[in-house]
Each structure stands twice: as C-alpha cells, then as structure tokens.
Amino acid sequence: MKKYTNIISSPNMKLAAVRDLKKNPEYEYNSVVIPEDFKNYGVNKKYFIRTYGCQGNLRDSEVIAGILRELGYTQTDSVDNADIIILNTCCVRENAEKKVFGEIGTLKSLKQKNPGLLIGVCGCMVQQEHIVDTLLSKYQQVDLIFGTHNIHQLPSLIKDAVLANERVCSVLSNQGDIQEDLPSCRESTYKAWVNIMYGCNKFCTYCIVPYTRGKERSRKSVDILNEIKQLKEMGYKEVTLLGQNVNAYGKDINDLSFAQLMEQVALIGIDRIRFTTSHPWDFSDELIDVIAKYPNIMKHIQLPVQSGDDEILRLMGRRYDSKQYLELVNKIREKIPNVSLTTDIIVGFPNETEEAFNNTLKLCEEVKYDSAFTFIYSPRVGTPAAKMKDNVSMETKKLRFNKLTATIAKYELLKYKTYENKIVKVLVDGPSKKNDEILSGYTEDNKLVNFKGDISKVGSIVNVKITKAKTYTLEGEEVE
Length: 480
Ligand code: 5AD
Ligand code: SF4
Description:
The protein is of the alpha/beta class. Helices cover 33% and strands 22% of the residues. The strands form 6 sheets. Strands 1-8-7-6-5-3-4 form a 7-stranded parallel β-sheet, with helices on both faces. Strands 18-19-20-22-21 form a 5-stranded mixed beta barrel. A 3-stranded parallel β-sheet has the order 10-13-14, with helices on both faces. Strand 21 (461-469) and strand 22 form a beta hairpin. Helix 7 (221-233) packs parallel to helix 8 (258-268), helix 8 runs parallel beside helix 9 (285-293) and helix 12 (354-367) runs parallel beside helix 13. The chain is globular and about 60 Å long. The termini are far apart. The model has no long low-confidence stretch (mean pLDDT 96). The site of iron/sulfur cluster has 10 residues, from helix 6.
C-alpha cells in the first residue's frame, strides 16, 4: 500500500455552489499532455472501466478509455487481468454510492495479490468532500481520485501514482471549463453520444448534480457541428445530444439556441437524432416546431416531471406547476401527434402527503407516459432538501413506488399494444441479452424491440413487423 497521499486539489461543495453568470467558460483544445518520459507506459498493460449512472458518465468513460489507449493500454473485460481499474461513479441516489463502495471493497483482495494494480475512482461521487475523506481514510486500495473537471489530467496523475508511488487526489470544484478534442474511444461504431453542454444551474432542491458537474456551460456550436459531421462521415447512424438540461444550450455564450442547434444538426443529415434531458422550464415553441419539422429528429421527448403536486414541485424548486406542465404536454402533442413522452418521477419527497402522491398518480393518468424512470427520494448531503425532514417512512415510500410503477406499466402496455401488427424501423444493436438468436434494437421513438432477423444487419436500420407487445419490450420479425 502506498504511504503518501498527494492532494493536488480536493472537493469543496460550498465553492461548487457558486455561479458567476457573467463569466464565460474557457475553451481548451488538445489539453491532454502525455509526459515525455511516460509515453508508452501502458503498452502490454490492460485497462478496465466500470461506469455507473447517466449517459454523461458513459461519454466520460469513452474519453477515459481514449486517454488510456494513447498511453498504450488495451481494454479487458475482466478486473482479474487488469493493470488499471477505473470506477466512474454516480451519486444521484444513495444506492448508487453503496454499490461503488461495495465494489471497491471487493477489489481489495485483487490489490493484495497484485500490488502493481492501480485503482482509480472518478465521476460525481468524488466531487463530494465526505466521500473523498472516506476513500482516503478507509480505502487504502484506491490509488487515484480524480473529479469530473480533471479527466484530461489522467496521464500525469497516473505518472505520479506510479513513479512517485503516491496516492493522488485531484478534484476541482470550480465552475468548470470546456476541454475540446480529448481523445476518445467510442463504445459503438454506429451510435454516438455528443455532449453539447455541461453542468446545471437549476439547483432543484433534491439534486446533487449542480454541485458535482458545475456551472451550465455550452460547447461552441461550431465544435459540436464539426463533431457530428465527422461522425456522419464515419458512418454513424445515430447521435444523442447530451446535457443535464439541453434546453439551456447556448444561453451562457450567446451562441445558437437549442432549437437552432437542433435544426443545424438535422441538416447534416445523420439518420437519427436524439437528445436528453429537457427541463420543462426552458422548452421553447421554436424547439417543438423544429422537432416536428425534421424526420431525422426522433419523436421521443424525455420530459422529467418529478411530481404532479404543486406544493411538492415548489419544494423541489422545479419552477413550474402541474398546470403549466400539462399545458406544455398538450402543446407538444398538438404539434407532434405521434410523440413518445417519457419522464422521471421521485416519490417520498419530504412532506409528500397521500393527497400529494395521488396528484402524481392523477397526472400520470392524464399524460399516459410511454414509460418512466421512477425513484424513491434519497437525501443528498449538501442539497437544500437534505435539510428538510425526510418525514415519509420507507414503508410508505415503497408502497407509493409500487403503486406508481403499476400505473406507469398499465399505460405503457396499452401504448405498446398499439404497435402490434405495425411495421417499425429499428436500429439493430446485436443479439438480445437473453437469447443469442434474437436481435435487439430501438425504434425511432426509443422502444426496445427483440426480433428474429439477420445478424449481419447490426448497425443498420431495418423494418420489423411487431408481433407481440409486452410491458417493457416489443417482439417481432424482420421484414423487407
Ligand atoms: N433522490 C431520488 N431521485 C433523484 N433524482 C435526482 N436526485 C434524486 C434524489 N436525491 C432523480 C430525478 C432525476 C433523475 C436523473 O434522478 O428524477 O431526473
Ligand atoms: Fe438536477 Fe434539476 Fe439540474 Fe436536472 S435540472 S440535473 S434534476 S438540478
């Protein structure tokens, strides 16, 4: 075990909450520097990355993989023969954190067998001081801790850990800048994540993300469009534009609005364009029109509601009430009649009464979502909601959670039933998880389809006739 800890920087949640709205982000190009005496350090060595949480983390892991490849590392699917293991973490709920601590615990024996193994922990969890304190004091097996703003420093951090035999911690809590042209190794050759902005300024009272990901800051539209043009040239079929709240795109830098950016992306002509996530607050009429107009913008909108009760929405700091949300839903449905709407909902937020919860159920009955991600409220250290009394018992939270998921499932199945006997377009991902002989992929409106088809079509868009609807998936067979 290493004796010394080199703390280059450590997180500070108070600092992370500060927003200087007048300051534009700095753009740094090609900021990954591989120290001369460290080039090829990873040759004949293997990396393993485990990613928890959202698409933002998946994209960051592609960048981490890209940097490790520049050092000469190759990928392995097993921790047992890895020379470096990176856990890219999420802290949006307590469960996610527990899993990571569990995994670090199990890695201890590997480290004892192989003292040369490097273990790194990065991502949102380590943006919190109490987590870094715990990792440093109780988890000696962790060699590297680096934050969401520090990924580009990875080569020099590994160098310090190896050559100086130190544990290294580098976590900035500033508002964040933008690193362009980072090396990256994309998971897929036909579907790509494209960050359009980072951070969040909304500060919903339950959410840790504004502290872990920093200020809302947009990439320049020219950099985004160039990246997508390149992806198209490389044969990519689908891009998903990523941001914590993509509707705020461009506001910080006086660039295109999100609607204008979407239009430019559509004109590049890539087959499928998706985006996630939209806060209902900034969802403009202009954006609805652009989504309606271009056939290559997929008609699926993830529109987190979080609660259907006005008092809870106020306590959550969501900046809309249920009436405004429903008006937005109706407006979207008028202009995009076949739109698929999905959402995020939290149950058991402080002060959620039975009546408040029933208002959430009522809203779901009215909207009839295609599907939803449902969560039990989990207090996050440092957020305003964590200071409120967590006064709904776990038993009640679980009962409400089950009721809510049953309601969502009821409408989901009804919606899925409407696909039976129809022909849909599916971008083929590969053999399904459960059965090698069945392929799986997603429809234009993001429904998972398992179907009989030709394996050589992986990465292309095929027609599938739906034969059966289940609650979370469709079944079918490929047709001409
Ligand atoms: N507890 C439970 N769910 C949460 N989410 C965010 N913070 C919390 C929390 N503290 C959910 C929200 C968000 C999704 C990504 O995670 O629904 O939209
Ligand atoms: Fe969190 Fe709200 Fe920002 Fe979404 S919009 S990341 S829920 S603070």
